[in-house]
Amino acid sequence: MIPLSTRMRPSKLDEFVGQTHFMFEGSLFYNSIKNKIFDSAIFFGPSGTGKTTLARLIAKEIDSNFVEINASTTGTKELKAILENAQLRFHGLMQETTCLYVDEVHRWNKLQQDSLLKAIEEGIIRFIGSTTENPYFSVNNAILSRVRNIYEFHRLTTDELLIILKRTISDTEKGFGGLNIKYDEDALKVLAKMAGGDCRVALDTLGFIIDNLSEGDKITQDIVGQAMQRQTLFYDKEEDKYNLLSALQKSVRGSDPNAAIHYLARLIDGGADLMMIGRRLMVMASEDVGMAYPNAITIVTSCVQAAQMVGFPEARINLAEAVILLASCPKSNRANQALEEAMYDLHHKKIDDVPAHLMDSHYGGAAKLGRGLDYKYPHAYGGYVTQQYLPDNLYREGVEYYHPTDNGNEAAFKKYLMELKKIDERNKKG
Question: Domain spanning 349-429 has what CATH number?
C-alpha cells in the first residue's frame, strides 16, 4: 500500500507548499525552473519539508531525464553506470542533460562524491543533492564550489500543513475527496501542530486516522491524540504555551532550577516550537542574568544553536543545559534597566546634541566646524582619562543610567566603575 504522503506529492510546481523564503512565483529560483535553466544545487533541511518532491518537480519542469538514487543504498559501481548512461545521452542523438538527484548525499565518502565532479563541470548532469546534515560539514568543498546554491529548507508552518491536509481531504483523485470525510477544524489544526513541521508525519497520520475511522465518525481532537499518542489539550489552548513560557522565565528569574526545568519539560512535551523556547531563553540571558554573568548569553546562544542543529528529541538536552544555567547563576536586570531609563529620557526630555569633541572628524572641514577637537584618546592615557561623554544638559544633571548590583561578576564591574568615578572627582577638584 502506497503511503498517503507519497501518493499526495504535487504533480505541478505551483502546487508545492512551503519554503517561501526562496520558492515563490517570480523568485530567481522559481524563474530558473520555469526558464528550464535550473543548475546544480544542494537541498539542506529536516525530513518531510519537500526536498525530494521539489527535486522531482524541477526535473519534470525542465524536461530532463530524471534519475533518483539514495546514497545509503547506491555504491560506486551503480553510480559509475548512471554517469556513463548520462554521458551517452548528453553526447548522443538526444543531447540531453540528466538530472541526478542524490538523497542523503552526506552518506557518500569523499571518493564517491568526487566522482560527480567531471560530470557536473561538463554539464552532463544537473546535480541535486539533499541532506539533513549541514552541507558545509558533510559535503566536499569541491562539490560545494560547483553547485549554484545551497537552499536551506525550513520546517513547514502550521498554516502550510493545514493547506496540505485540507487539500488531501478534498482531493478526489489522490486523496479522500470521494469519502465525504467530516472533521473538526481545530482537530486538523492540532494535527498540523503536532506534526512538528514534517509534512510526511502529518499526511501519514491523517491517512492512518481516515483508514481506521468508523462509519459516521468524524476527525476530532481526541482521535488525533489517539493517532499521535499524545495529549491534545496543550495544542487546543493557544494561551497555554505563553503561560508556560511566562512561568519558565519567572522561575529562572527566581533562581529555581527545579521549577524552571519542570516548565521546560511541559513546553517540550506539549509540542512548543524549538525556536520559540530558544528565543525566550536568549532574552532571559540578557534581561534577567545580564552583567551578573555576562557569559550566559554566549553559552545560551550556543545551546540554542546546538538544539537547532540536532533537532528534537535530542535538542531537549541542549535546552535543559541552558535553563539550568540561567536558573542557577547570579541575576541582574540593570543593563536592561539602564536602557529603559535612557529611552525614557529620550522621549520625555529635550536632549542636547553630541558634544563637539565626540563628533566625527574624519572628513575635510571637520576641524573648521570644531568637530573632534580636544578629544582625548583614552588608550594614550593608560586606558582611562576624565572626559565628558554625555550631552551637555545630561552631563550637568549628573545623569546615571547604569546602577550595577553586587551580584556575581557585576560586583567587579561596579568596583571598577567606582574607582573611575573617584578619579573623576579628584580631577574635578584639581
Answer: 1.10.3710.10
